[in-house]
Specification:
Order of helices and strands: HEHEHEEEHEHEHEH
Number of domains: 1
Distance between the termini: 25 Å
CATH topology: TIM Barrel
Largest sheet: 3 strands, parallel
Helix content: 40-55%
Shape: globular
Oligomer: single chain
CATH superfamily: Aldolase class I
Strand content: 5-15%
CATH class: Alpha Beta
Radius of gyration: 15 Å
Length: 158
């Protein structure tokens, strides 16, 4: 990982590290690894306040999950209003952006994304089940800050 980070930074790139570990111990190991590697952005996770202080003091931007995140792979649950409320609370704490598990939501995904985009004035990364060009076009069309692709690459969805 150290070599990869050095190569990316050597080429002028930014390094993103996403933690999908819901155990507190595993999550803080991920945070520690990210700090040791000197990454630029830490995305994901649910242990907001202590992690925000750690990352901020190490110059790392933080984009936590919002809403009620359950299981692994992570799923987003709750009403759109609940997710909006959480996103506003998280934004008020001073995070650099949010990580929205839009396509892992068990409701109206388009309404969720539109509502969150209108509700908060911080960057949004969409993560989880970006597994088609149609979904990429949708999130790019919303003007989100970014999106992640994980297992879809290994499953040769593209």
């Amino acid at each position: 990982m150290r070599n990869l980070v050095n190569i990316i930074k050597g080429e002028g790139g930014k390094v993103f590290f996403e933690s999908v570990n819901l155990s507190k111990e595993g999550y803080f190991r991920s945070v520690d690894t990210a700090i040791k590697l000197g990454i630029d952005y830490f995305i994901g996770g649910i242990y907001l306040k202590p992690v925000l202080r750690l990352l901020r003091s190490n110059g790392i931007k933080y984009f936590p999950y919002v809403g009620r995140v359950v299981g692994h792979p992570c799923l987003l649950r709750g009403s759109i209003e609940d997710v909006i409320s959480d996103a506003r609370e998280v934004a008020a704490l001073g995070v650099d952006g949010i990580n929205l598990l839009a396509y892992r939501y068990n409701g109206d995904v388009d309404r969720l994304m539109d509502s969150i985009k209108s509700a908060v004035n911080i960057p949004i990364i969409v993560a989880g089940d970006i597994n088609s060009f149609e979904r990429i076009k949708k999130v790019v069309g919303l003007g989100v800050y970014g999106f992640t692709i994980g297992s879809a690459i290994f499953e040769r969805k593209f």
